[in-house]
Structure formats: C-alpha cells, structure tokens
Amino acid sequence: MKHGLLPSLVLTALLTTAAPVLAQTAQQDAALVERIAELKKRAVEGVEARAKLAQEMNDSIFSFGELAFQEFETSKYITDILEKNGFSVQRNVAGLPTGWVAKWGSGGPVIALGSDIDCIPKASQKPGVAYREPMIEGAPGHGEGHNSGQALNVVAALALKEIMERDKIPGTIMLWPGVAEELLGGKAYMVRDGVFNGVDAVLFTHVGNNLETTWGQPRGTGMVSVEYTFSGESAHSAAAPWRGRSALDGVELMNIAWNMRREHLRPEQRSHYVIPDGGDQPNVVPSVASVWYFIRELDFGNIRKNFETANTISEAAAKMTDTTVTRKVIGTAAPRHFNKPIAEAAYANIQQVGLPKWTEDEHAFAKAVQRTVKDKEEGLATELKKLEQPLEKPESGGSDDIGDISWTVPTITLNYPSNIPNLPGHHWSNAMSMATPIAHKGIVAGSKVIAMTAIDLLSKPELLVQAKQYFANEQQKNQKYTPMLSAEDKPQIQINADIMATYRPEMKKYYYDPSKYATYLDQLGIKFPVLEKPKN
C-alpha cells in the first residue's frame, strides 16, 4: 500500500516544485513578447517620423537617374546622409567605385539591409503623368523603381539606431547598395571579396506592387552575363574583300549556331543577346565585333553547362571564320533561395502593417497608367498576398544577383507597393509612379516591416538559430553555391560611362532641390494626378 502511494507522492512533490518555475518562465515569455511589441511600436513611430526624409530621398534619387556602374550622385547622396547620422562608411568596396558599406553599432547580431540603385536605359519619364512624356528624350530613368529601396532602408535603419541607442541593444546595422543590378554586375563581386563575412542575416528590399515576401526558390533564374569579342583583319569591302577576315561573320555564325542549339536545350533556359559592336562602316571588313549574351537557367549545374556550350560555339565560329575570340564575364547571378524562418517573421509583420490606404486619385492614376500600357485596369493592390509554399517545380523568369548573397548568408527579399500592377517592367511606364504619393506610401509601409523584422532578429536569438539551421540543412540539401566568377574577373565599371557623359549635364538641370520644393512633383510643376495628355 505504501509502495503504491509513493509514485503519486513524488509526482505531487515534483509538480509543487515545478509550478513556480513554470509560472516564472511563462511570465518571462510574456514580458519578452510585450517588450518586443513595444519596440516594434516605437520602430513604426520612428519610421513615420521620418516619412519626409523617405520622400526626399526617393525623389532625389529618382532625379539622378543613373545607369549601372555610374551611380555616383546616388551613392554620394546616400552615404552623406548616413555619415551625418553616425554611420561609418567604407567606399569603393569590391572594386566598385559606387559600392560602399555603412555600419553602426557593435558586436552581433549583424543585420544587413540592402537595395539596388541603378536605373534603366531610355526610361526618362515625368512622374505623376499617365502618358509617355520623357523629361529628356533618350535619357535613362528609373523605369523599374530602384530609386526607392535605399530610402526605405535608411529610414528603417535610423529608426532602429534610435531604439538601440536608447535601450542599449547590442548589434550592428549594415547598409549596402546593389550596384549595377540591371547588368547583374555587382553583388557577386561583393560576395567574392568577403563583404558579407560575419553577417547574420540580410534583409533585401525591392520595389513591387504589393507588400510581400517569399521563401525557398522563387520564380526566376540564375545566369551568366558574358561578352564574346571576335578579332579578324580589315580590308576594303569592295576592292579586296578576300584579304579581310570578318569578325562580324564570327559573331553572326555564333548567333546562328546558338539559335539552332536552343531547340536542344531545356525549355527552362532563357538566353538573349545584343551586338554592341558590329563593325565601323559597311565598306570596311570588320576587324573587331562583339556579342553580349545573358545565359539563364534554374540551377547551378545547368547554368554552367549552357555557359560551356556557348563557349564551345564561340570557338567553333572563330575557326569557321579564321578569326580569334576572347570572352569577358560582365556579371553573374545565382538562382535565388530565401530563408523560411526570416520570411515567416517578416510576413507576421507585413500582416500587422498592411497595405497603404490608397486615395481615389491614386487608384485613378494607376488605372490610367494601366490603360496606357493596354493592360487590365484594376488600380492598386488592396489585398495582401499570402506567404505561400514554394513552387514544387520552379519556373523560369528574371534574375537578380541577390541570389549570390542568399547562398552566402540567410536572406529574404521584401517587395513593397511603390509601383503599379500589370506593367511591363524595365519600361518607362514603371517610372510613372516612382516620385508620387504612391511610391512614398509604399516606402513607409516597407520601412516599417524591415524595422520590425530587424527587431525580431535583434531580440530573438532563437530566430537566428532557426534561420541558420534552415540555411545549412534545408537550403543546401540538394545544391551548393557554385560561384561563376573567376579570380581574374573584374567589375566592368566602364560600361555606361559614355551614355551618362552625354546625358548627365542636361539631367542635372532636373535634380530635385528639397530646400526649395516640398516634392519633386512640385518642382516639375505637376499637379498629381495627370491622367490624360492635353489635346493642344
């Protein structure tokens, strides 16, 4: 009888002893939840207090309109603001004259905020005007919306810095730019040169038309950007063509062969080319000609396989034309893979922040722009997208060199609603909203999410542990990072210099002056929204 009671007495004693411990743990957990909620509330208030700075930064960078590798005004403007706010700045990183890294704080965790800064050729466009109206005909412009991401990140970083200083929260905030993203020409060099060594998590931001994030491998490809240059011998095209060896023939034969080969490549591949140098004039046999390829695929193995196929074809074309060929890698992008635990944390914050409240004028403008590009007139997004499972079979699409970083450190991308649905992308119509209240509201919404997610990472050590476990055990289960750059490859920083030299003097006349004008629309004399082109 006594032996039968013993287990029950022991259990009662254990429960009596454990109850205060369990209660204390529950109280501690509740206190932590309450503290994090309070920090996030202050982060949101800090972002809202800097909404004017976000607008000024967005509009200023929009007015600079700088192409890949030539983002000098943009980088100087951003780093000056960061230095004035106590960040230390390292410039010219990874061989990129417009590359930089800005840091504040000490110790870990190190949270890196990044966004792209370059623009699109021939995309000059007046903002707030729903029809084609270049500010300068033929000039570049922000026809994707890269003018907005750094404004978002800087505002989030300053709100975080204020909280970390006041509450003595350890950690380091790091900001960096996506240089030459439109050429996939910057981030892989930053990875190769160790810029992200010691970083615990990357929160990347990219303009979109909803407030959303993803995890796993999203729709899209990795790629190699490579230029093949053929060298031959010039001659008079009419008097003695037999004495020439046409480099352009080499280019054309390579393109013919590649187009024939497409039928026998996986349907997931995407590849395209331009001929930047086809010779000088028709009556001179071209001694030099070049062709520039983007070679895209879904995974590292197939990217490498197609790249080697293109190399073989180029060498065969050179033999056929008695020319020689060299190649130069301009940029690379790994297939992207985003971190599940961080994406889930970010999505919880997305749900708290929600989409901006759009006005009737903003919806009307969006519909007018959609009408201009002859697409569905549905206005701006009014419902959040869900955080969905990755596709079982990833689909082909565009590339982004954030992929290289995503294989180096746990990473997510946050898309924020500063642009309009149903637009072509890489197009002047995508510039129409990017210095209007639509862009400004989207930036503030995205900045809140980034600041709140950074607080999660700073306050919850278990989140970083989970992120690193996913990165090591799930992401790298089936494939490992395979860099496409060699040690000899260098950033092609000369690209676009001549175009910017042509247009920059005139573009400077349109730089935004926030000391004189409340917004860039005010400076341009545009009363938002302008929905139709005047008949006169």
TrEMBL record:
GO terms for biological process: folic acid catabolic process. Residues 1-23 form the signal peptide. InterPro entries: Amidohydrolase (IPR017439), Bact_exopeptidase_dim_dom (IPR036264), Peptidase_M20/M20A_hydrolases (IPR052030), Peptidase_M20_dimer (IPR011650). GO terms for cellular component: cytoplasm. Keywords: Hydrolase, Signal. Pfam families: M20_dimer. It comes from the Bacteria. The keyword Cell membrane does not apply. One of its GO terms (molecular function) is dipeptidase activity. Residues 222-317 form the Peptidase M20 dimerisation domain. This is Amidohydrolase. The lineage of its organism: Bacteria, Pseudomonadati, Pseudomonadota, Alphaproteobacteria, Hyphomicrobiales.
